[in-house]
Design a protein that fits this description.
A two-stranded antiparallel ribbon has the order 1-2. α1 (about 20-55) crosses α2 (about 60-85), α2 crosses α4 (about 105-115) and α5 runs antiparallel to α6 (about 135-150). The protein is globular and about 60 Å long. Helices cover about 60% and strands about 5% of the residues. The chain has one domain (about 15-170). The chain has about 180 residues and is mainly alpha-helical. The protein has helices at about 20-55, 60-85, 85-90, 105-115, 120-130, 135-150, 160-165; strands at about 95-100, 170.
Length: about 180
């Protein structure tokens, strides 16, 4: 029985619309719940390695943050290059794809992951410049993330800035309403 073939380069008319921002935000919240487990497991692994890291002088808060950043990067890039969908994206029926309508390859998925963090340095700089700590600082970070998300409203195809820069796009996999 022959396998169905997928057209690797859909026409622009065949490109699915971007998911609404509300669904994307809800998907992000759900992703955060799932990432709690991922980060818990990675922290346990880090703590098992901590005696070795302390002996070599590599244990520090920054090394723990870099470890978490790398684990999250592996999680996202693995899922995106594999199917274009993380577990949360599967639930909310959306996916990341490249210009040809296929899941991004490793380098493009990694670039998308890195670019998705571009909202953080300016937000943190504002928080530090205002001398904020704890709750107010987190509030500035949340405001920066919200601004980043809302920038998609300025894009004619409602794509995030990091998707534009990485050459990827989010598509809505729900059946179009008739």
């Amino acid at each position: 029985m022959p396998a169905a073939t997928i057209d690797p380069a859909p026409t622009t008319a065949a490109v699915a619309a971007a998911p609404p921002l509300r669904r994307r935000f809800t998907c992000m919240l759900y992703e955060g719940v799932l990432l709690f487990g991922v980060l818990s497991a990675s922290t346990a692994a880090y703590l098992l390695l901590r005696p070795f890291l302390q002996k070599t002088g590599l244990d520090s808060p920054v090394s723990m943050q870099l470890w978490s950043f790398l684990i999250l990067g592996c999680y996202f890039t693995w899922f995106w290059q594999r199917s274009g969908q993380t577990l949360a994206m599967q639930t909310w029926r959306m996916r990341v794809e490249n210009a040809r309508g296929m899941p991004p390859r490793w380098p493009q998925a990694a670039l998308r992951y890195l670019l998705a963090w571009l909202w953080l340095p300016p937000s943190a700089a504002v928080g530090h410049a205002l001398g904020l700590v704890k709750g107010p600082f987190v509030g500035v970070l949340c405001a920066g993330l919200l601004i980043w998300i809302l920038l998609a409203l300025l894009d004619p195809r409602r794509q995030f800035l990091h998707d534009r820069l990485a050459g990827t796009r989010l598509t809505d996999l729900r059946q179009p309403k008739r």
